[in-house]
Design a protein that fits this description.
single chain; 2 domains; 8-stranded mixed β-sheet; 6-stranded mixed β-sheet; 14 strands
C-alpha cells in the first residue's frame, strides 16, 4: 500500500475540489492506498461533503485523510506519490522535503480535461525540476494515449439499476420536493451566469411538452431570478410560467447530484466534474465550459464537439453543435432549441453509446495506478 498526497487549490468554483475528492475516495477504496487530500478552502469541500468539519486541520472522510492546506505548512513526510491538481503550486517546504529525503517520489501534475488533439502527445511527459526531482504531466482524456475519465468501478451498474427502478427515482425526487408530472420532460440546470438562459426559458415555457427544470443552488440562479422577476429564490421554491415549472434545489452532495443526473432526461452542466458525471448518466447533456481569457475555451469546446459528434448523422451533429455554441455564446438558444428537438431520439441513443465507449477504456484512477507501477519498475 502506497501513500498518496493530492493537493487541491480551490479557484472560484467546485470543479477542482469535485474532481480531487472523487479521485481521492476512489484511490483509497479501490486501490487501497493511504490518501491525504490537501484542500486550501475547506468551506468548498463541505459543500460537497456536508458531514465534514470546516474548522478541522485533519479529518477522516470516506477513508481519506482530509487536511487543511495553509501556511505555515506543517512538517510532514512526503508521500510516495504526489499529485498537484490542475497546476497548483506545491508548498516550497514540501518540495524541499521531497528533495531532502533522497528516495524518489512520483510527482504528477494532474491537468484539466480536454479533447484537443495535442493532449495525447503531452500525456506522461517528464519535466525536470530543481534538486534532481522530476514531474510528469498527466492528462485525463477521451481517447487512447490519455489518462481516461474518473469513473468508479461500479458506477454504471449502480446508475442503470437506479434508472430501472421507478420507485427509487420517485422517492429521490420527492426527497428534494419534486413530484414528477406525467409526460413532463425533466431537465437539470447547473451553469455559470448565462445571458442565453432567458431565450431558452422562453422556448421551454412556450413548448408543446411540459418541462420541469430542476436548478440546484448556484451562479445561474441570478439569471433565473431576473427572468422570473423574483428578488430572491431559495431552495424549495417553485415557479410556473406557461408549460415550464421551475424547482429550486439545495446545493447537493456529490452522490445526490449523481442521482439527480440519473433522474433527468437532459442535464445542463458546467466545468469539469459535473461534465464528466453527466456523460456517465447516459443522457443528452449541455455543457457550459469554463470561460477563459481570449476565448481559449472555444478550442476545447470545438474539440469535444468534433469527437462527440463524429458518429452522429451530419444534420444531428450540426443541430447539436449549434445548440452548444449558442449556450456558450449566451445567445440564440430560442432558435437552437427547437432545431435540437427534431434530433432528440438520435441524441438519446447516442448518449448511451458514448457512455459505453468511454467506459470501455481504463478510468483515471486505474490509469494513475498503472502509471505508478510502471514508474516503480523503471525506477528499480
Amino acid at each position: 500500500m502506497a501513500r498518496w498526497d493530492i493537493f487541491c487549490s480551490v479557484v472560484d468554483n467546485y470543479g477542482d475540489i469535485g474532481v480531487t475528492w472523487r479521485l481521492a475516495r476512489q484511490l483509497a477504496a479501490e486501490q487501497g492506498h493511504a490518501v491525504r487530500l490537501w484542500v486550501d478552502e475547506l468551506s468548498a469541500f463541505v459543500r460537497l461533503c456536508p458531514a465534514a468539519n470546516p474548522d478541522a486541520e485533519s479529518q477522516l472522510r470516506s477513508g481519506v485523510e482530509v487536511r487543511h492546506w495553509r501556511e505555515p505548512f506543517p512538517a510532514v513526510e512526503p508521500a510516495e506519490v504526489v499529485i498537484e491538481a490542475f497546476a497548483c503550486q506545491l508548498p516550497p517546504s514540501y518540495i524541499e522535503a521531497m528533495t531532502a529525503r533522497g528516495s524518489r517520489r512520483l510527482w504528477l501534475n494532474l491537468e484539466y480535461l480536454s479533447a484537443e488533439d495535442w493532449v495525447a502527445g503531452c500525456h506522461g511527459l517528464p519535466s525536470p525540476q530543481p534538486g534532481g526531482l522530476q514531474k510528469f504531466f498527466f492528462f485525463p482524456g477521451f481517447v487512447a494515449g490519455t489518462g481516461g475519465l474518473l469513473r468508479e468501478a461500479e458506477l454504471l451498474a449502480r446508475r442503470r439499476a437506479f434508472q430501472a427502478d421507478a420507485s427509487a427515482r420517485q422517492a429521490f425526487l420527492q426527497s428534494l420536493g419534486v413530484v414528477r408530472v406525467a409526460g413532463a420532460r425533466l431537465i437539470s440546470l447547473f451553469a455559470y451566469e448565462n445571458a442565453g438562459l432567458a431565450g431558452w426559458l422562453d422556448a421551454l415555457a412556450a413548448g408543446a411538452q411540459a418541462t420541469q427544470l430542476l436548478v440546484p443552488q448556484g451562479k445561474i440562479l441570478a439569471d433565473l431570478q431576473v427572468w422570473l422577476g423574483d428578488a430572491q429564490l431559495a431552495p424549495g421554491d417553485q415557479r410556473r410560467r406557461g408549460n415550464l415549472q421551475i424547482h429550486v434545489l439545495p446545493f447537493l452532495a456529490q452522490d445526490d447530484y449523481d442521482r439527480l443526473l440519473w433522474c433527468c432526461d437532459l442535464n445542463a452542466v458546467r466545468g469539469e466534474d459535473s461534465f464528466i458525471r453527466a456523460q456517465w448518466a447516459g443522457r443528452p447533456l449541455l455543457w457550459h465550459i469554463y470561460p477563459q481569457e481570449e476565448g481559449a475555451h472555444w478550442d476545447k469546446l470545438e474539440a469535444f464537439l468534433a469527437l462527440y459528434g463524429a458518429e452522429l448523422p451530419s444534420d444531428v451533429a450540426a443541430a447539436h453543435a449549434a445548440w452548444w455554441r449558442a449556450w456558450n455564446a449566451g445567445e440564440g438558444m430560442e432558435q437552437a432549441w427547437p432545431a435540437l428537438l427534431h434530433a432528440w431520439p438520435v441524441l438519446q441513443q447516442h448518449a448511451e453509446r458514448w457512455c459505453d465507449s468511454q467506459a470501455a477504456r481504463p478510468d483515471l484512477a486505474t490509469a494513475l495506478e498503472q502509471f505508478y507501477l510502471n514508474w516503480l519498475s523503471y525506477a528499480a
